[in-house]
Design the sequence.
């Protein structure tokens, strides 16, 4: 158990819909990262928040948005869903912006039908 | 960050050492080698990292060649629970989680 929690574990929805994925970081970690992992592909960095502020953006589509709340939990909002958005979405948290202090959650598997 | 190259898959017998190679011939002097693993669709898990010297922790050992162009992750006594995809990543140590280049890694199958 990494200490990072993500809900829901699985999500099945239809094209055009909107969903929200939730992440709670490890206690004490101020940074939250969101990643997308499509079938047979490496992790793609989407966005990073640090203590409530957006820190960096990666390959995040305009249809996707995220925020980090005062209690440090984060939500990733995916809208106008397309079939190609089906993927595993991981949240990670880190106390320092360093790979050895990055802990990943169990992921949310999104299926768009 | 330097590009890394790993074999797509490997097999290992349970109880034997698993030696996972990684080439990083363009690594710069201040880039570290990090290893993560991902057990079947779970979140990746950090294993170990190193700069020049060999490193060992409770999970694995990391051997880095003197010229730093390649490294080997060693799981000394592989178990079935070590079946996973192993990622080798070369990056600077600070401020770069968002810049990690996650390739396809090596899929290690530990067989009974």
Sequence:
């Amino acid at each position: 158990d990494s200490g990072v929690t993500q809900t829901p574990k699985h999500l099945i929805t239809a094209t055009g819909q909107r969903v929200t994925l939730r992440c709670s970081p490890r206690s004490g970690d101020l940074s939250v990262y969101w990643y997308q992992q499509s079938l047979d592909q490496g992790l793609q960095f989407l966005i990073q928040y640090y203590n409530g502020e957006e820190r960096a953006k990666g390959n995040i589509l305009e249809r996707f948005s995220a925020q980090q709340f005062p209690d440090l939990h984060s939500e990733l909002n995916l809208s106008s869903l397309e079939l190609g958005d089906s993927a595993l979405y991981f949240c990670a948290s880190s106390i320092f912006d360093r790979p050895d202090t990055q802990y990943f959650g169990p992921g949310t598997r999104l299926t768009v039908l | 960050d330097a590009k890394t190259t790993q074999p797509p898959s490997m097999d290992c017998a349970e109880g034997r050492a698993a030696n996972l190679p990684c080439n990083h011939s363009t690594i710069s002097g201040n880039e570290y080698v990090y290893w993560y693993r991902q057990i079947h669709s779970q979140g990746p898990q950090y294993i170990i990292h190193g700069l020049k010297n060999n490193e060992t922790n409770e999970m694995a050992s990391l051997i880095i060649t003197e010229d730093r162009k390649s490294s080997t992750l060693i799981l000394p006594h592989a178990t079935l629970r070590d079946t996973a995809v192993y990622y080798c990543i070369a990056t600077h140590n600070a401020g770069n989680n968002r810049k990690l280049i996650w390739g396809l890694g090596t899929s290690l199958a530990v067989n009974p």
Remarks:
- Chain B touches chain A at residues 32, 34, 36, 41-46, 49, 87, 89, 91, 93-105 (CB under 8 Å).
- Chain B has a mean pLDDT of 93.
- Chain B is about 0% helix and 45% strand.
- The first strand of chain B starts at residue 9 and ends at 13.
